[in-house]
């Protein structure tokens, strides 16, 4: 009666993992991806034969027994991944303003604590309290710990915000900023970002931090292999234009080419607002649609991907987060005159050269309003569109401004 047991919209990491798990459990799964390349943020591209990651610059929780290691092992891909463990004493380095000193975050709670105590020797109580609270918060999320549980476990920590909590355990302003120093990982906003977001992400990297050698697309390829081995199908270049339903359920997916896809269950890996916009069903009330559509989104990013001249830039086995002021939260509130106020630098791991870097990525914040004038343009390798000379000038101008800031710390870029 149905084309699939489960039809999944989108082939990002969530969609692929979901499809792989369901396939192993005996479900017939179809994944529908609008682009030629699967993987979402796992995608890579190449320039001058160098591989560049679009989104996955490092991964946590991959040591034996940790959550992502357990998931990838269950899916049969863990042993096939090409990984490089980042520096155990410093996987993330944090810098401020014109200060020459760099503050390091280490892997494993013992090393993490030891590293911070080297810089803040009288803050042992605060650092230990911080670590204990992260572990406590993480323990309240059943799926994060791959166990069954109830929603009520999380209720006690939902109203705790990151900036306020960190300020409550220490009066040392510098330590407060260091603990929040890599908040670009979750688009941290002072007084707004919940502490559980900070805890779940930070804990993952403290447990273990890794780079994918030759890019994160290997994860997507291995997951695709797993999906296909269990009878699943991945449809590339298959944009879903609508989810058509009745009062109680979705009946079928409508593809851009007019084909209808039926399934017992439908799963969307897209943004909730986008999913609801595509869903044609009287069962979804207008008030609910409007509430989801009007929820505030996090800020976006501006990236500069650089292919380096051979043997000119040393491979850094850590990431670097820099703040142009002494406030780690300030970068998100930049203006036209002081952009960029913060940036992250990621060096890719390559199997070709372990001493020097082939590529690096610079990332900073960018508000949607800065690029809103090009909102209706769409440019991919399969649907090429020239956005105009003003767009090219915008990109080049912003890239030069960012590079000028980065060169203060890394002159040889």
Oligomer: single chain
Residue share in β-strands: 15-25%
Q: What order do the helices and strands follow? A: EHEEEEHEEEHHHHHEHEEEEHEHEEEEH
Give the low-confidence spans.
none
Q: How many strand segments?
A: 18
Count of helical stretches: 11
Across the major sheet, the strand order is 10-2-1-13-12-11-14
CATH class of the largest domain: Alpha Beta
Task: Please state the CA-atom Rg, rounded to the nearest Å.
Answer: 22 Å
Tell me briefly what this model is.
With 413 residues, this protein is α/β, with parallel strands linked by helices. Helix content is 29%, strand content 21%.
Structural notes for this entry:
- The protein has 413 residues and is an alpha/beta fold.
- The protein folds into three domains: 4-56 and 215-293, FAD/NAD(P)-binding domain; 106-209, no CATH class; 297-406, no CATH class.
- 29% of the residues lie in helices and 21% in strands.
- The chain is built from eleven helices and 18 strands.
- The protein has helices at 13-24, 67-74, 109-119, 124-139, 162-169, 173-179, 195-207, 217-229, 272-278, 286-293, 389-406, and strands at 4-9, 29-32, 44-47, 50-53, 59-60, 83-85, 92-96, 103-105, 209-212, 233-235, 240-245, 250-255, 260-268, 279-280, 300-307, 319-323, 342-347, 359-366.
- It has a seven-stranded mixed β-sheet with strand order 10-2-1-13-12-11-14.
- The protein is globular.
- The termini are far apart.
List the keywords.
six-stranded mixed β-sheet, globular, seven-stranded mixed β-sheet, FAD/NAD(P)-binding domain, 18 strands, 413 residues, alpha/beta, 3 domains
């Amino acid at each position: 009666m149905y084309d699939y047991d489960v039809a999944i919209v989108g082939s990002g990491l969530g969609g692929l993992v979901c499809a792989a798990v369901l396939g192993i459990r005996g479900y017939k799964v179809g994944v529908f991806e609008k682009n030629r390349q699967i993987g979402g943020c796992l995608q890579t591209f190449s320039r001058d034969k160098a591989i560049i990651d679009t989104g996955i610059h490092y991964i946590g929780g991959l040591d034996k027994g940790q959550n992502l290691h357990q998931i990838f092992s269950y899916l049969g891909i863990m042993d096939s991944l090409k990984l490089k463990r980042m520096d155990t004493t410093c996987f993330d380095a944090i810098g401020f303003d014109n200060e020459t000193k760099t503050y390091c975050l280490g892997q494993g709670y013992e090393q993490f604590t030891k590293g911070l105590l080297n810089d803040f020797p009288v803050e042992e109580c605060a650092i230990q309290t911080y670590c204990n609270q992260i572990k406590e918060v993480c323990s309240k999320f059943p799926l994060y710990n791959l166990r069954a549980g109830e929603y009520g476990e999380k209720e006690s920590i939902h109203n705790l915000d990151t900036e306020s909590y960190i300020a409550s355990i220490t009066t040392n302003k510098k330590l407060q900023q260091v603990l929040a120093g890599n908040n670009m990982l979750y688009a941290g906003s002072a007084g707004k970002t919940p502490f559980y977001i900070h805890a779940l992400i930070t804990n993952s990297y403290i447990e273990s931090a890794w780079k994918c050698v030759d890019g994160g697309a290997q994860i997507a390829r291995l997951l695709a292999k797993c999906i296909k081995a269990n009878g699943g199908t991945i449809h590339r270049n298959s944009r879903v234009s609508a989810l058509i339903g009745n009062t109680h359920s979705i009946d079928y997916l409508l593809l851009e080419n007019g084909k209808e896809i039926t399934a017992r269950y439908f799963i969307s890996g897209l943004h909730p607002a986008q999913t609801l916009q595509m869903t044609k069903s009287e069962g979804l009330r207008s008030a609910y649609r409007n509430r989801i559509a009007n929820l505030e989104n996090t800020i976006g990013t501006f990236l500069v991907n650089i292919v380096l001249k051979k043997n000119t830039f040393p491979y850094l086995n850590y990431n670097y987060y820099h703040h142009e002021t002494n406030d780690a939260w300030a970068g998100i509130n930049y203006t036209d005159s002081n952009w960029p106020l913060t940036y992250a630098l990621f060096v890719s791991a390559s199997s070709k050269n372990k001493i020097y870097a082939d590529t690096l990525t610079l990332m900073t914040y960018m508000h949607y309003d800065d690029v809103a004038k090009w909102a209706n343009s769409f440019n991919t390798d399969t649907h090429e569109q020239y956005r105009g000379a003003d767009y090219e000038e915008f990109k080049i101008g912003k890239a030069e401004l960012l590079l000028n800031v980065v060169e203060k710390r890394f002159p040889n870029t």
